[in-house]
Amino acid sequence: MCILVAVSAHGQTNAENSLPLRVMSFNIRYGTAADGENRWEKRRDLLVETIRRFGPDLLGTQETLQFQAEFLGEQLPAYTRLGRGRDDGHDKGEQVTVFFKKDRFEELATGHFWLSNDPSKPGSRSWDAAITRMVTWVRLRVRRSDRVFVWLNTHWDHVGALARIESAKLMRRWLAENASNLPVIITGDFNSHEDSLPYRLLLGEDGGEPKLTDCYRRLHPARQPDEASFHDFTGKRDGSRIDWILCSPPFMPLEATIDRSSQDGRYPSDHFPVTAILE
Questions:
Q1: How far apart (Å, rounded) are the C-alpha atoms in residues 159 and 227?
Q2: Distance between CA atoms of 50 and 46, rounded to whole angstroms?
Q3: Contact call for residues 205 and 244 (beta carbons, < 8 A)
Q4: Quick check: 191 and 158 in contact, CB under 8 A?
Q5: 212 near 204, Cβ under 8 Å?
Q6: Of 27, 35, 15, whose CA–CA distance to 62 is shortest?
Q7: CA 163, 165, 168, 174 torsion: positive or negative?
Q8: What residues of the chain score a pLDDT lower than 50?
Q9: Which domains does the chain have, with CATH numbers?
Q10: Do 99 and 79 touch, CB atoms closer than 8 A?
Q11: The predicted structure's pLDDT at residue 17
């Protein structure tokens, strides 16, 4: 966050509490998929290694089944894990599980809502969505300071064009009602490109508040033909990003990358994780 020379209520200077915030968004590919040589058991250790290498303070995952969430929780003991299955609000179906470092953040509130006309109803689905979609959110306080922010993690529908538009509108309404005076971070797989209406709506380009910044595009303003974040285990780069990290002021992106690392020709998932470092 912004570096201010002042003393917090906890006796720490704001400069001491302004370490950069490392954020990762990672569609880890649901673990029951018939992926042959790329099945979960053959790539899960590489996936954990990829996460550890970046060392996120905040890790937002998508397509995470309960047994995958439990595995990651065991492998990442320094993190608090929050997630619910989209089908029943418990452990059935894919999750958008979030992980945050226990020693850096205090959880103030958390919850989930479904991307539908009945967002409080687990398993609900609307518009032209092919399957159930949801958001997991958490309000966090940076320990040893009074700084509070809201983080949302999501996975939008891969088929429904209207569903993606309505999902953007619903998330904007939720922000207006629940985080109007707080900084915001959003991570997710949006199944949308940045020239789409859902992208513009979510960023608040229609005049809504808060205005959100696409961290990658802020630091890489010239669009390139090799920015794909989905590669289907091929490592291909041609295409556009569908995985984003967004933030509102006073967060400021310092670095943003598409992590294309692999090992012996194997990738940790069918998506490249995307990362950002925020001040």
A1: 21
A2: 6
A3: no
A4: yes
A5: yes
A6: 27
A7: negative
A8: 1-13, 15-16
A9: 24-278 (3.60.10.10)
A10: yes
A11: 57
Q: Hey, what are 145's tokens?
A: 């300071």
Task: Please check whether residue 96 is in contact with residue 115, taking contact to mean a CB–CB distance below 8 angstroms.
Answer: no
Q: Contact at 8 Å (CB) between 264 and 247?
A: no
Contact by Cβ (8 Å): 272, 229: yes
Q: What pLDDT sits at residue 149?
A: 98
Contact 262, 235 (CB under 8 A): yes
Pairwise CA distance, residues 163 & 129, whole Å: 5
242/228 Cα distance (integer angstroms): 7
Which residues does residue 134 pair with via DSSP β-bridges, in sequence order? Answer: 114
Give the residue from 210, 213, 185 showing the smallest Cα distance to 199: 213
What is this structure's pTM? Answer: 0.93
Q: How many CB atoms lie within 10 A of CB 153?
A: 27
For residue 131, give the nearest of 159, 106, 152, 151 by alpha carbon.
159
CB 104 within 8 A of CB 79: no
CA angle 94, 185, 24 (to 5 degrees): 60
